[in-house]
What does this fold into?
Amino acid sequence: VLELGVGSGRVAIPLCRDGHTVIGVDPSRPMLAAARALAAALPRGRLTLREGDMREVRLRRRFPLVIAPFNALMHLYEPADIVRCFTNVRRHLADDGRFVFDVRMPNLRELSFDPDREYQCRPFNHPTLGRVRYTEQFRYDPVKQVQYVTMRFYPPKGRPRETVLAHRQFFPAELRGLLTAGGLRLTKRMGDASGRPLSPDDPMQIIEAARA
It folds into this structure.
């Protein structure tokens, strides 16, 4: 299995424990270091980690399964970058291989949230900071189709912390066209991991594609 956006091994390590051999690619050195630490107990050779960009990495082999789980593709913002990624996936897919990934279904209510308002989220217990209050602020750019989420964390003591998450929104018909432009064909659209067909009310899209 080739996993694009392997991160800390959240998906790859359970796959390896189930007996699969996984090559994981990610551009983040800290995330790869975390994955190596978590994978230390795996049999030798079961997980191979590579620093690289999903648009450009070249592994000189083809795979029966390529995956990009947990919204990894939502961090590609320009259509040209998405097509480059899909073209690269095609390069790494076996003739009868499958590419499986998930992205969120655009939520029109969420995309129209007031950009000047902080929305309260459920507080959580941090192992060292204690009870942390958490808010989110949303701003959607309809031209770029990017949703910016400013997440603010308010610990009991000390200064608030802030980070911004940017997610490219993929509308279903557009996604089919981007796959075609990258030399792939859509084979399935699912609404959850059971494999049932995608419906308009599903919060996520699970996509299976093959070489065109």
User: Anything to note?
Assistant: The mean pLDDT is 97. Residues 21 and 44 are 10 Å apart (CA to CA). The first helix runs from residue 12 to 17.
